[in-house]
Amino acid sequence: MGETIDTAHPSAKLYEKDRSRSLPPLLEESSLSFLNAGSRQVSLSMEISERLHLPQQQQQQQQQHPSSHPLAWSSNSSTSTDTSEEPALENGHRLFSRNALRTRSGATKCELAKVLNRQTCFHEILKQKDEIIEDLDEKLGSKTINHDTYDSKRRMSTVSKGNEERIRVLQNQNRFLNEEVRRLAKLRGQEHEKIKIQEGKVRSLEADIEVWKLEYISLIQSSIRFTGTDTMDDAELSLFGGDRHKHRILSLLEEARKINPSLPTYEHLASGEVHVDSYGFKHHFSDDGLLLHYLCQELSQHFLCQASSYEKHQKNWLLYLKNKSKNLMANKKELKALVRAGIPDTHRKQMWRTFVLAQVEDIVQEKGAHYFRSLCSAAPDSPLAARYRKQISLDLMRTMPSNVKFSTPGSKGIMDLQDILLAFCIHNPQVGYCQGMNFLVAMALLFMDAQDAFWTLVAVTERYHSPSYFDHNLLGAQADQMVLHDLMVEKLPELAKHLDAIDIEISTVTLNWFLAIFFDAVPFQ
Amino acid sequence: MSNSRRNSGTRPGAAGGRIQQAKLVLLGDQGVGKSSLALRFVRGQFPEHSEATVGAAFLTQTILVQGQSLKFDIWDTAGQERYHSLAPMYYRGAQAAVVVYDINNANTFNRAISWVRELRQQTAVNTVIVLAGNKADLASEHRAVPTEDARVFAEETGLIFAECSAKSGLAVNEMFMMIAHKIVGKHASPNSSQGVQLTGGEEASSSGCKC
What we know:
Chain A has 525 residues and is an all-alpha fold. Chain A contains 20 helices and four strands.
């Protein structure tokens, strides 16, 4: 059956194709008309399109019919009513339904037209409303602007007059104040200058006072004398002028202690207690004169350190150390001047170390960094060390016994001292141990560690002094005494003559100055 | 050597008498107690730990002997062997030499013997030499040198002999007094000849004041 239908109505397919082709433009048209309604009406047109959707489809169907081929339409309907048996009745029916459809389509057309009308109406209204809104917006805008400008103009005109007045006043004030500022600044500058000058004066006066204090103390110190004859036996140190000077010394000491609390108190020392100074030396006095003498000495040192010249000296040191931090030996001339004026305690370790290592650089390089330690470990079995072991051990406790570092057997200072002296005997068997070295090493140990102290000993015995200085006959040292004697004859002929006349050989006094580098010969500081 | 010529010069003393000067030298091995003996004699002290002597130390002490003041110029020398070569500088012209040994250490006695021999050879015959055995306070436990050995040696070589202790003070002052008596006795007779020396000494000291 299906076959027959297909063959019987070959145009049906054509129609179908036609319809499918003709439909899109229609739809487009309608949808375009909706879209044209404008963006502000999208929601509305959507609504409408929904409502129109159904009638449109119906309309489409109706529109097709008249344009389509009658045959095709009948064949089409025959397919749907294929089973009908009475064609006449069918025709009547058909006519009727066509009429009905026509009326219906007319009604729908009317409705569509109405809806379209309404739509355009809405469009119009919306358009008008938009225009009104726009208009109102514009009006509102212009009004506010008008209002503003007008207002400000009015205000300006009134305010500006007042302002000009005020500006004039303020400008006047400003001018006046500026002048005042200038005047005051000038005065201030002048005052500043005056203060500077005054401060300078105060400083110099203060420095003067320090110098006077120092001189006063030195004077008192020198007036603490042995009473009686020119001999030392059973003489006591006493201070001339009685208690007056003593009280003065004590008050100066109190004052100094505020700056340097490490200074001893009189009461502390007078009660027989031991005072340990900053280098570790113990001081103990049974005699009041000696005690005051010591206090004067400490005070002198304190005032010296307070003096402006010393402050400057320290600044120079700091400056030098900062500038030459890479190579401290860079400027020998400047360094020499600085060292001659004294190395401050804070830099002594560093400077000594630098000097010593510069002297023995080649030996250190040849022997290696662990040379000292290896010598120490070799010492117990070394015959070279054994030769001097007894002599050294005899002197260990006889080296700076008044210093806390070396006052107890077995203490680190004593052990270091022994290590270094024994190590040196192995290092330099030709020289070995010579009394005096113990003091050199102890002095070095006060400021440096054992290894550096060892190198100090090497530097002193092998570099600073000639190698024969400490040999078995102390030839070098004795030769130096001859040189000193000759120098004295040349430079200080009177003294040389005098010493000659009273038959005093200068070397009896000076030899140990040379050997132990003035240890014990000059005050420690 | 004209050792005693200059150093025995006399000076007017504070008490109106004369002060005679005498040079005394302490010799002996390292650590026998030379410095301690000197300190005991001069100050009457004995520090538990004294410092080793480098080169030499100088001390003075004035004592009254036979109504006369005697000032000792004491040269306390370093004991270590290698300072030996310096010793002549100190004992040259000395009127007295104290050779010290440690009675608890035989080696130091041997060293003392060699010192005595050297002194006998190098100094004037009238030089007073004392053999002093120090550290007698330890002798009961540690003695190494019998008193007799030392006494015999001293008698043979004409020395004053004493065993003493710087620590306890035993026999120290007595020893120095003995020396003083010998020196003063020696110079008692040729007193007139010393007058020449005296003026020389004064001139020297007055010129010294310019310094």
